[in-house]
Specification:
- 46% of the residues lie in helices and 11% in strands.
- By secondary structure, the chain is an alpha+beta fold.
- It is globular and about 85 Å long.
- The termini are far apart.
Length: 558
C-alpha cells in the first residue's frame, strides 16, 4: 500500500493535519490514525489530498495551508520563544524549560533514558539536539500531539464577534498566523526586486560615489559634516551627538529643549542652517543604514533585497524584517522596480486601526463612521471639529496621548464614542495592573509576566508604560491579525496568477506579478479584503477599504 493509499484509508483529506519532520536523510509523518518514515519528501506526492501540513516551524515548502506550532504557540500562550521545547511545555502546562546550552552538561543528562520524553514530561534534550533524526516518525507524532492540544485550546476560547461565522475566530487566526509564518520564509527567499543601476545612482546623489577605501569613506563623511558646520560660527562639533547639536543651534539663536526633527522642521524655510542640518540627517541615515555596505550585504547579484522575516514580533504580533525592509527611506523607493514584463500591484489599507477599533470595541457609532471611505469626516462631524482635529483625537485615543490639543479632543471622543473609549481604558487599566489580555483574534499579551524595566514596543515597563502599551496593543495587535489574514488569503489566490508577495509593511502589501496578470491581482486584493472582513469582523458593520494601484516602481504608488 502506498503512502497515499494509507492516508486515504485513514480518512485523510482536505484540512487533515499531517505532521512533517524533516531529518537529514529521511522524513517523518504522523496523521490521525498512523505514522510513517519515508525516504522522499512526501509533500508533492500527497498534494492532491490538500492536507494541512503541521510542523514545529515553517520551512521552504510549496504548501497551500499549514499549522505552524511555533507561530500558534506565540499566539495562544504568549510565548517569547517558539522552539519545540518551549512550545511542547506550554501546550502541556509544564514550566518553560531552559534554552539548550552550547555543550551537553549534567542538566541535559538528568531524567534522560533515550526516549523522546524525560521523566518530568519535558522533551528530551538529547532529542532536541538532533537525536530525533533517528526516529523522525516519532518526532512527527509529538508534533501532531501538540497540534491537537493547541487546536482544542483555541476552540475553547470565546469568540468575540457579534455574529460568529464558520470556525472560531481564534482558530482562524491561528491558521492565518501559520500561513504567514510560511510567507515569511518565502519573503526571505524571494526578496524585494530592485534596479541596481537606479539604486547606485540614488546612493551617489545622497552620500557620494562608492568609496574605494576606509580613508575615502572618512573623507566623504567629513565633507558632509562640513556642508552643515559652515552655517554655524565657532569650532566644529560632533553632529551625531544630540547634546552638541543642541549647543550648536544655540549659537544661531535657537534655544530648544531638544533637537528632534519635528521640532526643527518649522524653521527650515527661514534658517539655512537648520535646513542644512536636516538635509544632513537624511544623508547620514542613508550612509550609515542604507549605504554601500548595506547594498553589498543584503542585495544579491539578481537585484533582490533580502532580509530575515518573522511572522510576529514579541509584543503586538506585527510582522518584522531585517535589512531595513520595513524602513526603506522614501528617497530610495524609486529603485524598487518590477522586473521587465512584470508589474507591482500595491495595496494600502485605509485608516485600518480606527476601523479595527470600531470592530473590536463594538461601538455602533464608530462603526457607522467606518462605513465611509474617509471615516475621519463623520468623526469630525460628531466631534464638532475639523478633520485634522478629528484625526488627532482618534489617534490620541488609541495611543494614550492626553496632553495638549489631544486632551480636549479626547473629551469629545468620550461623548461621541463611549463604547470605544471604554474598551481602550479597560485595556489600559489591565496593563497598569499587570493583568494578561487577549487581542480580538486571541493573541495572549502576558502582562502579568512582564519583566520589570524591559522595553516593549515604544514603551517601558513602568505601570503607565504598560498601560499605554496594552491600550495600543489591543488595537494594533488586532490590526496585525486582520492584515495577516488578508495576506494569507491573497497568497492563496495569487498562486494561479504566477505572482509573488514581496513586501508586507504593517498595512501595505506589495505584489510582484506578470504584467498580464496585474489587473487580476488588483481585483484579488480587493476581493480578498472583502472576504476576510466578512468573517473577521462578522456582525460589526465595519467597512474596510484599500487603495490599490498598478505601478512599475514602488515610488509611483500613491
Amino acid at each position: 500500500m502506498t503512502l497515499l493509499d494509507r492516508l486515504r484509508a485513514d480518512g485523510a483529506g482536505r484540512g487533515t493535519p499531517v505532521a512533517l519532520a524533516v531529518a537529514p536523510a529521511s522524513f517523518g509523518l504522523a496523521w490521525p490514525g498512523g505514522s510513517a518514515r519515508v525516504d522522499a519528501d512526501p509533500v508533492a506526492e500527497l498534494a492532491e489530498l490538500d492536507l494541512r501540513w503541521t510542523w514545529w516551524s515553517a520551512s521552504a515548502r510549496d504548501a497551500r495551508t499549514c499549522w505552524d506550532l511555533g507561530a500558534v504557540g506565540r499566539l495562544l500562550h504568549g510565548l517569547r520563544r517558539d522552539d519545540p521545547a518551549a512550545v511542547w511545555a506550554a501546550a502541556h502546562g509544564l514550566p518553560s524549560p531552559e534554552p539548550l546550552r552550547g555543550a551537553t552538561d549534567l542538566f541535559d543528562v538528568e531524567g534522560e533514558d533515550g526516549s523522546a520524553l524525560r521523566t518530568d514530561g519535558q522533551l528530551s534534550r538529547e532529542w532536541l539536539r538532533g537525536g530525533w533524526h533517528a526516529d523522525p516518525a516519532r518526532w512527527a507524532e509529538l508534533a501532531l500531539e501538540v497540534q491537537q492540544l493547541q487546536e482544542a485550546s483555541l476552540r475553547a476560547l470565546p469568540d468575540p464577534r457579534p455574529v460568529p461565522r464558520g470556525a472560531p475566530l481564534a482558530l482562524l487566526t491561528a491558521l492565518a498566523e501559520s500561513a504567514v509564518a510560511l510567507i515569511a520564509v518565502e519573503l526571505s527567499a524571494v526578496g524585494l526586486p530592485l534596479d541596481l543601476g537606479v539604486l547606485s545612482s540614488l546612493l551617489e546623489d545622497v552620500i557620494g560615489p562608492r568609496p574605494e577605501s576606509a580613508l575615502q569613506e572618512a573623507e566623504s563623511r567629513a565633507r558632509r559634516d562640513a556642508a552643515v558646520l559652515r552655517h554655524f560660527p565657532g569650532g566644529p562639533v560632533d553632529l551625531r551627538s544630540p547634546l552638541q547639536v543642541k549647543d550648536l543651534l544655540a549659537r544661531v539663536g535657537f534655544d530648544l529643549p531638544d533637537t528632534r526633527s519635528w521640532r526643527l522642521e518649522p524653521h527650515v524655510a527661514t534658517s539655512p542652517a537648520i535646513a542644512a542640518l536636516l538635509s544632513w540627517r537624511k544623508a547620514e541615515r542613508t550612509a550609515t543604514t542604507y549605504g554601500w555596505g548595506w547594498l553589498d550585504r543584503h542585495v544579491g547579484p539578481d537585484g533582490r533585497l533580502r532580509g530575515e522575516w518573522r511572522a510576529a514580533d514579541g509584543a503586538s504580533g506585527r510582522m518584522t524584517a531585517s535589512a531595513g525592509l520595513h524602513n526603506l527611506p522614501a528617497e530610495l523607493r524609486p529603485a524598487v522596480r518590477a522586473a521587465p514584463g512584470w508589474s507591482f500591484v500595491r495595496a494600502d489599507l485605509g485608516q485600518v486601526e480606527p476601523r479595527v477599533l470600531a470592530a473590536v470595541s463594538g461601538d455602533p457609532a464608530l462603526a457607522r463612521a467606518a462605513q465611509e471611505d474617509d471615516m475621519y469626516a463623520p468623526v469630525a462631524l460628531a466631534l464638532g471639529a475639523d478633520r485634522p482635529t478629528a484625526k488627532v483625537a482618534v489617534l490620541a485615543a488609541m495611543y494614550g496621548q492626553t496632553s495638549g490639543a489631544a486632551g480636549a479632543a479626547l473629551r469629545d471622543m468620550d461623548r461621541a464614542y463611549p463604547v470605544a473609549m471604554g474598551y481602550l481604558r479597560a485595556a489600559e487599566l489591565a496593563g497598569q495592573r499587570g493583568q494578561d489580555l487577549r487581542t480580538y483574534g486571541g493573541r495572549l499579551l502576558r502582562l502579568s509576566a512582564a519583566p520589570a524595566g524591559e522595553p516593549v514596543g515604544e514603551h517601558v515597563a513602568a505601570s503607565s508604560g504598560w498601560g499605554r502599551f496594552a491600550r495600543n496593543a489591543m488595537v494594533q495587535g488586532a490590526a496585525a491579525e486582520l492584515f495577516k489574514a488578508w495576506t494569507a488569503t491573497v497568497r492563496d489566490g495569487l498562486r494561479p496568477l504566477g505572482g509573488e508577495v514581496v513586501l508586507c509593511l504593517h498595512d501595505e502589501l506589495l505584489l510582484h506579478v506578470p504584467a498580464a496578470q496585474a489587473d487580476a491581482a488588483a481585483q484579488l486584493l480587493i476581493d480578498a479584503l472583502a472576504g476576510t472582513a466578512h468573517w473577521w469582523a462578522a456582525g460589526s458593520a465595519v467597512r474596510f477599504v484599500a487603495d490599490v494601484s498598478v505601478v512599475q516602481s514602488w515610488a509611483d504608488a500613491k
